[in-house]
Amino acid sequence: MKHYIDFHEDVGIEELDYLLDIAADMKAKTKAGIEHHYLNGKTLAMIFTKSSTRTRVSFEVGMYQLGGAALFLSSDDIQIGRGEPISDTAKVLSGMVDGIMIRTFAHQDVVDLAKYGSIPVINGLTDDQHPTQMLADLLTIKEQKGTLKGLKLAYIGDGNNVANSLLQACAKAGMDISVASPKSHTCPDKYVEQAKKDAAITGSKIVMTEDPYVAAKDADVLYADTWVSMGQEDEKAERIKIFKDYQINSDLMATADKDAIFLHCLPAYRGYEVTEDIIDGPRSFVFEEAENRLHAHKAILVNCFLNS
Ligand code: CP
Ligand code: NVA
């Protein structure tokens, strides 16, 4: 079964090139208006227990453009929200649809859906990881820089789901990555170790630091995410204090390579993790990055559905 749950486990180093090629092909076909109904008649169940704009729209539109259909299942409406076990949900959906995409809190719930079901499962974000975002990010970097290998990405801020997945993804792509976070909010060792393992194969470098200027030095990509992830709303005031020195602004941008680009998974909070002049400025490619979710997700869907 071809799942897409954990970038480190589910995406091989060579497979990454293949996925990026399919994503680029999907984008070219979409732009040229060429029909690409590779998933004719297939259905995707999309379970959301957290909010989403980009992930929901891109998977739903993606399935439609591939000739299939997607069902939006909010936890407010389906029985998971009233306590039906993940294992039963997995078995029921396996009898009716061809794949599941889920965005939720506990990563283990996604693993369990795959364990108890018999169809491909795609992780649309958990508290620990955000792997679908990664393929769109790498596609965007490749489009702007022409290559991935040998580039340096600097992630500034919370050692959260996006940061963990960036460690996994950059290491697979042969990109150097520096993560700057306060010691109290750095990425779990597990992700650093995984990245170092792949980096030893792809020849990239992994640096964990508390200093945003050390991370940003000569970087080709500066990357930000919110200081307050979904589920952490009660900690907002405290987090704003903790991360106040981890903002991407013109001073930090000046430390990076002169042709550095700015990326953000979005939604962004201007004046916190990034200043308005940077995110709305000429070096920002956040809306290209958001659009690339559509093309990247179609590559993930085709790979999971047709290779399972
Ligand atoms: N970046 C991202 O996953 O956006 P959504 O929360 O809108 O899906
Ligand atoms: N870290 C953010 C990413 C949103 C796409 C969150 O989990 O809310």
Describe the structure.
- The protein is α/β, with parallel strands linked by helices.
- It has two domains: 7-130 and 292-307, Rossmann fold; 133-289, Rossmann fold.
- Strand 5, helix 7 (161-173) and strand 6 form a beta-alpha-beta unit.
- Helix 2 crosses helix 13 (286-306) and helix 4 (86-94) packs across helix 5 (107-116).
- The radius of gyration is 19 Å and the shape is globular.
- The mean pLDDT is 98.
- The strands form two sheets. Strands 7-6-5-8-9 form a five-stranded parallel beta sheet. Strands 2-1-3-4 form a four-stranded parallel beta sheet, with helices on both faces.
- Helix content is 45%, strand content 14%.
- Residues 125, 160-162, 225-226, 229-230, 265 line the site of norvaline.
List the helices and strands and how they pair.
Blueprint: H1 7-10, H2 13-32, E1 43-48, H3 54-65, E2 69-74, H4 86-94, E3 99-103, H5 107-116, E4 121-123, H6 131-145, E5 152-156, H7 161-173, E6 176-180, H8 189-202, E7 206-209, H9 212-216, E8 221-224, H10 236-242, H11 250-255, E9 261-264, H12 276-279, H13 286-306
Parallel strand pairs: 1-2, 1-3, 3-4, 5-6, 5-8, 6-7, 8-9
Helix pairs in contact: 2-6, 2-13, 3-13, 4-5, 6-7, 6-13, 7-8
Bound molecules: phosphoric acid mono(formamide)ester (CP) and norvaline.
